[in-house]
Design goal:
five-stranded mixed barrel, 6 helices
Amino acid sequence: MEKYIIETADYLKSKGFENPEVGIILGTGLGQLIDRVEIEHTASYNHIPNFPTATVEFHTGKLIYGTLEGKKVIVMQGRFHVYEGYSLTDVTYPVRVMHALGIKHLLVSNASGAINLDFKKGELMLIDDHINLQGGSPLAFKGVEKMGERFVDMSAPYDAAMNNTLRTIAKDNGINLHEGVYASVVGPQLETRAEYRFLRTIGADAVGMSTVPEIIVANHLKLPVVAVSVLTDECDPDNLKPVDIPEIIAMAGKAEPEMITLFTGLIKSL
C-alpha cells in the first residue's frame, strides 16, 4: 500500500497540492464549506491514481486544495463508504494520502440520526467517543505495522485540545453543540426499531454509516482528529416514520452553516 500512497501523493503534488496543513472530510449533504475556500486546485477522484471513485449520487467526488482562514487545506468533497462495496482500506485511503501530503490536523463531518431523544434534528453533536459496528478494522491487513503501530490505543480517539476549542466557539456563537457517542454501522439500509433500541442500550447518541474508519486510521497515523455530526433525523423507535432521504439531505444543508462556523473558527485557531 505504501507504494500506492506515494504514487498518489506525488501525482497530487504535481497538480499543486503542496504542503497542506489541514484535511477536511465533508459528509452527506455537507458541501457548503467549499464556498468559503479560496480554491487553487481541484482533482476529480476518478482522475487520481489509486483513488476509489465516489458512487453515491449526492457525493460529488472531488479533492479540493486552497486556503481557508489563512491555512492551506485539502477538502474531500464526498467520502467513501463500506456500503458502496469498498473495503475499509479503500474507505480510509484518502486519509493516508492527505497525511503523506503533510496535513497536521484532520476535521471530519457527517450526517447522522439522533438516537438520544434529547437531541433534535438540525442540531450538531461533537463526537466524544464512538462504537465501531462496521464488522472490521481498516488496520486489519498484512504489513500494517510498517505504517504505524498495529495495536493502536483508542482510549481517547478525538483530540482533546481541538474539542475544547470547538466547545468555546460553539459557546461564543450561541450554537447548541451536543456531545456524545457515535455508532458507525455498515448500511445502506436504515435501522429497524429494534436496532435503534439496541443502539440506545449500548450507549450510542447518534448513528451513521461513516467516520469511524477514518478516525481509526488518523489515530494509527498519530494525526489529531475531531468529528462533528449534523443530526438530520430523530430515531425514536416508538414513533418511527418511513425515512425520507431528500428531507435528510435538506436538513443537513440547513444545519450546515453552524458546522461551518465551528470548522472555520477551529482552523483559524490552529
